[in-house]
């Protein structure tokens, strides 16, 4: 008989465990898996895969994540939740405004070259506070105190790009910043660029809608991989 509070009496949807051999090994399959997980999250039918005790033990000796998520640190942007994934599935690196530096690039290169991860996703979101802070600094001519300045300085080139394109709405600027991060990452990492050229990896920029929970692709390399398939959530 199950005791109160034992695993056999826990409420909620049934969880499933997926082995490393079932993980996507190509960029297109990895992206399809993320999109499928996001559809489950949006429609309120999550499976919570790879979150049980059996899988926790299975991945203790090694990891084989199928996607790297370079995301904004915003507390509402928890990758494993919005993509309905579990332990060992996603290699997550988060900074305010998904800004990149040597440590971020090194982490991405580790996942791609050592762990063999086939997909890198730059994940931004609407109403991004880092973009708003950078726009305020640019408008007022003031510089934020402390290390926040580094975040603002990293976002400012995206604001200049938006100005050149005549984009003034915040969410349009966010999309441009996501695309800018994708380009900057490939431009700064010869290792990552070589993996993409060889077809072993892809980099896709995606934007998350906080209220709706949907993600949509806004940029990518190769470009055709970022095109939303028919029937996609966003």
Give a short synopsis of this structure.
This protein has helices at 27-43, 53-58, 79-82, 102-114, 129-140, 148-164, 170-188, 190-197; strands at residues 67-72, 90-95, 119-125, 202-208, 215-221. It is α/β, with parallel strands linked by helices and 234 residues long.
SSE blueprint and pairings:
Layout lengths: L26 H17 L9 H6 L8 E6 L6 H4 L7 E6 L6 H13 L4 E7 L3 H12 L7 H17 L5 H19 L1 H8 L4 E7 L6 E7 L13
Parallel strand pairs: 1-2, 1-3, 3-4
Antiparallel strand pairs: 4-5
Helix pairs in contact: 5-6, 6-7
InterPro entries: Carbonic_anhydrase, Carbonic_anhydrase_CS, Carbonic_anhydrase_sf
Keywords: Lyase, Metal-binding, Zinc
Protein name: Carbonic anhydrase
The largest sheet has its strands arranged as: 2-1-3-4-5
> What is the distance, rounded to the nearest whole angstrom, between the alpha carbons of the first and last residues?
46 Å
Q: List low-confidence stretches.
A: 1-15
Radius of gyration equals 19 Å
Number of strands: 5
Strand content: 5-15%
Order of helices and strands: HHEHEHEHHHHEE
Going by CATH, the architecture would be 3-Layer(aba) Sandwich
Count of individual helical segments: 8
Main sheet makeup:
5 strands, mixed
Shape: globular
Cofactor: Zn(2+)
Enzyme class: lyase
GO molecular function: carbonate dehydratase activity; zinc ion binding
Pfam families: Pro_CA (PF00484)
């Amino acid at each position: 008989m199950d005791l109160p509070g034992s695993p056999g009496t826990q409420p909620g949807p049934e969880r499933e465990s997926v082995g490393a051999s079932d993980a996507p090994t190509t960029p297109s399959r990895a992206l399809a898996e993320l999109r499928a997980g996001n559809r489950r999250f949006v429609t309120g039918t999550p499976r919570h895969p790879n979150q049980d005790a059996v899988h926790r033990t299975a991945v203790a000796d090694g990891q084989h994540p199928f996607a790297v998520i370079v995301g904004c640190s915003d507390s509402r942007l928890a990758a494993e939740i919005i993509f309905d994934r579990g332990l060992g599935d996603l290699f997550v690196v988060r900074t305010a405004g998904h800004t990149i530096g040597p440590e971020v690039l090194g982490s991405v290169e580790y996942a791609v070259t050592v762990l063999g991860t086939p997909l890198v996703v730059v994940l931004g979101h609407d109403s991004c506070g880092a973009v708003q802070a950078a726009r305020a600094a640019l408008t007022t001519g003031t510089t934020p105190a402390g290390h926040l300045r580094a975040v603002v300085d990293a976002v400012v080139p995206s604001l200049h790009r938006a100005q050149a394109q005549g984009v003034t709405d915040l969410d349009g600027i966010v999309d441009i910043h996501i695309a800018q991060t994708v380009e900057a990452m490939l431009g700064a990492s010869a290792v990552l660029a070589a993996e993409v050229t060889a077809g072993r990896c892809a980099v896709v920029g995606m934007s998350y809608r906080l209220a709706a929970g949907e993600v949509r692709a806004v940029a990518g390399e190769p470009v055709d991989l970022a095109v939303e398939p028919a029937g996609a959530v966003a």
